[in-house]
């Protein structure tokens, strides 16, 4: 069975990206992160990552609060009978 030129090119590209030789090596930072998160500095673990974690936490809490209020509002609106015209 013959493959078309496009299929052969796609196969060659996919084999090239799967190859482990072309991956760059990343520095192992596990021990640094363990020291950061296990430090006894009075912060809860979900805020020990710094400003990024704090922003993510506050955004999530705000969206959750907004969604809860929005849900309660629409439950109240839909529980009221419509006025006849």
UniProtKB/TrEMBL annotation:
UniProt topology in membrane: Single-pass membrane protein
What CDD domains does the entry give? Cyt_c_Oxidase_VIIa (cd00928)
Cite the annotated pathway: Energy metabolism; oxidative phosphorylation
Q: Which UniProt keywords apply?
A: Acetylation, Membrane, Mitochondrion, Mitochondrion inner membrane, Oxidoreductase, Transit peptide, Transmembrane, Transmembrane helix
Q: Where in the cell is it found?
A: Mitochondrion inner membrane
Pfam families membership: COX7a (PF02238)
User: Which GO biological process annotations does it have?
Assistant: mitochondrial electron transport, cytochrome c to oxygen; mitochondrial respirasome assembly; regulation of oxidative phosphorylation
Transmembrane regions listed in the UniProt entry:
55-76
Q: Which organism is it from?
A: Serinus canaria (Island canary)
Instruction: Show the GO cellular component annotation of the record.
Output: mitochondrial inner membrane; respiratory chain complex IV
What name does UniProt use for this protein? Cytochrome c oxidase subunit 7A2, mitochondrial
Its main subcellular localisation, reduced to a broad class, is: mitochondrion
What does the sequence similarity comment in the record state about its family?
Belongs to the cytochrome c oxidase VIIa family.
- Identify the InterPro entries for this entry: COX7a, Cyt_c_oxidase_su7a_sf, Cytc_oxidase_su7a_met
The protein's superkingdom reads Eukaryota
